[in-house]
Each structure stands twice: as structure tokens, then as C-alpha cells.
Amino acid sequence: MRRDSVSLILDGAIRALSRHGLRHLSMSDICEEAGVSRGTLYRYFKSKDDVLDAIGSHVRSSVDSVLQAAVDAQPDHEDRLRVVLQAMLDYREQFPQTATIVRTEPAFALDFFARSMPQLVEAAARALEPVLDAAPPVQAGLMTKHELAEIFERLMLTAYLMPTEDIAELPARVADAWAALVPAVPVPAVATGGS
Fold it and tell me: What is the fold, at CATH topology level, of the domain defined by 56-181?
């Protein structure tokens, strides 16, 4: 029950933050958006700052879940880069309040990205694992898998920081550019148990 209540509160806090802004956000706003009583809110969070701190881990966890769901739905290794990049972009559409917060509270958003980058890169690296394992720059020792995942993560963050009218085409463009720059490398088959 605790996890469901906390998620409900944090989802409401994100909506409240996008609606009221950081300076005007109150615990009452969070209660109203989350549909919980003040007693429930204060059972889990002592202050607005506690809620704001918890939003970061909540968003990171939801990004990880979105990427994993995309990979589970389309597990084909050949399409993995396009699928993961599309899921990163789709997160913006699934949770439009996050894009609003980036626009209206850029300092808060930039601080979140700076603090969350290691976890966001880790989520991207897990989702992109077959692409990263087979990537020639990684194979040649020019960069690590995490460094390459960070490049893809930072590229997709531009969709939040500098959206354009044709931003929907970004995942396909990046995947096509990657395919043109990197020769096809067969992904090794995963060995299954038994002889």
C-alpha cells in the first residue's frame, strides 16, 4: 500500500508542479492533485522539499519502466536503437507535465537532469545492451558502453530542452544515421541451457 500511496502522491506532485510552478507550489496543491488528504501526504513526506526530492527517483524509475516495456514489446535486436530512442521521446508524450516543468522551471529541470544523469544513462545502457555490445567504438575500446549510452541519452534530452516541430522524427533520424555510420555487426546469439 505504501508504494501505491507514494506513487499517487508523486504523480500528483508532478502535475501540481507543472500547474503552479515551484515558487507557488504548496502541500495543499499536491494533496489536491494527488487526491489525498493532508494526513496521508504528511505520513510520507514532511515538507515540500521532501516531495521534490522524491520526484527525482520517481521519474527515474518511470523512465526505466517505460524503456523496459518498450524493449519487452519489441525485443528484436535489429530495431533496438530505434525502439529505445522512440520510447525516450514517447515518455515526453506519456507524461506531458514533465515537458511543462522543463519549460516553466528550467533551473529545477536542469538540476534534475544533472543529478539523474548516471541513473538515466544506466537505464539507457540496460535497454540498449545488444546495440552497445556490438557497437564498433565499444568493440575497439574507443569508448565504454556507458559512454555511448550517455551520448544517446544526451541527444534525446534535446527533445525536452529544445523541442522542434519535427522532433517526432528524431529517433528515426538518429537510428538511420547510426546505421549509416556503423557497419552491420551481427549480435551474438544468447546461449540457452542444455546440450
Answer: Tetracycline Repressor; domain 2 (1.10.357)
